[in-house]
Amino acid sequence: MENILKGLEPQSVLNYFEKISQIPRGSGNEKAISDYLCNFAKELNLEYIQDEHLNVIIKKPATEGYENCPGVIIQGHMDMVCEKNKDSNHDFLKDPIQLRVVDDMIYATGTTLGADNGIAVAYGMALLASNTIKHPELEILITTDEEVGMTGAKNLDTSVLTGKYMLNLDSEEEGCILVGCAGGNRNCTTLPLEFKSSEKQGFLIELKGLLGGHSGMEIDKNHANSNKLMGRILDLLTIDYDLVNVNGGLKTNAIPRECDAVIAVDTKDIDQLKAELAKIESIFKHEYRIPDPDVKIELSETSFEKVLTDECKNKVIQLLNLIPSGIQTMAADMPGLVESSINLGVVTTKENVMTFEATTRSSVETRKDYINNTVKLVAESLGADYEETDHYPSWERAIDSKLEEISIETYKKLTGNDPKILTIHAGLECGLFLKKMDGCEAISIGPNAYDVHTPNEHVSISSIKNVWDYLVACLESMNQH
Known about the structure:
Strand content: 25-35%
Helix content: 25-40%
Number of helices: 11
Radius of gyration: 24 Å
Low-confidence stretches: none
Strand order of the largest sheet: 1-2-6-3-7-23
Distance between the termini: 42 Å
Largest sheet: 6 strands, mixed
Mean pLDDT: 96
Shape: elongated
């Protein structure tokens, strides 16, 4: 390990973050990090549980004077979103994350950083290893597969948890105390493909340069969705062309940054194709001059074996354009809060089918159902199959929450300022846990993180320290309530 973060504060937290950054831990590949956390607990002679879904719970007894306080659950997830730049050779199954420090920020090199939610894991490890921090009984709960449907949290047997206060550490803005979040699900539209032969010249259209982002936290930034823009490109082309395939995006919960399409055109139409794409690029550059100024369309020759039938091509274009994406409604009772949205995150061409995968989010269940039904109607009208998976509930703000009161009072004492009390559009595991844990209260906090779910993900070092100090202060104040 290079010790890139050596000497930075909080040293214990950043040391553990750098250690777990050496362990590949993409969603679905968590065995190594789960075992690492269990071995960490063994070294500290602490009780731990590792369930069949690789969730890990590590328990630490209360320090003196805190034995009668309600137990506290420190909660985060061990998996990370695996996104990388096209020119990166990083293998998320075996390569460590290459950390780098730029001023106050920690970045990776060409990949996602994994601060979402590795910082929570590091906070939890630092609490477990400390001999000086005063606290109630702690249960460090680190779940799996949060980024692909919260399956770890869904399958966790919460009867083994005794804590009454849950501090989720999966939010991304210092000074905010989150007290609620949207629910959501994934949906997949599958279109059967039919083919024909073609003697035309093959061309690869590459749409790139977009910023992307977290489809919950950054859906309000108006960043372009590459899959939707490719749908517009294919619809706007006036030349006669055949369509071979479309592939864009890597994760349904990340706003896609790139999309490719292979088309076939007559050689006599090549100059017109270039001219039309240049015109479309200028349209996009104008529309997204603020949120995505670097959008670009590149064209290069390529080969192909067969093309889609005209009917199938038209269905693909219609699906790309008619499946909704982006903000659908804003909350009427909380100005500035997105109420419902959908993100067409992944489009994939396989042998005989093309799939269109999206994440739907809403703090109002019926809004979510309406959006899903809209996608279903579009799919079925075009002869495609539709499926919903990975449903998770919303988290509604608790009335007269003692934990919320403690967290607000502690923040004021520590900083002299009032925290922001917010509900968010992104999904958090709290909703799942609270439905299974009667009487448990929750809040969510975290340091300033930016461009999560993208290779530009970065996190503030000073903010990590500030939130660490706040977390410790909250725990140490528990015996005063």
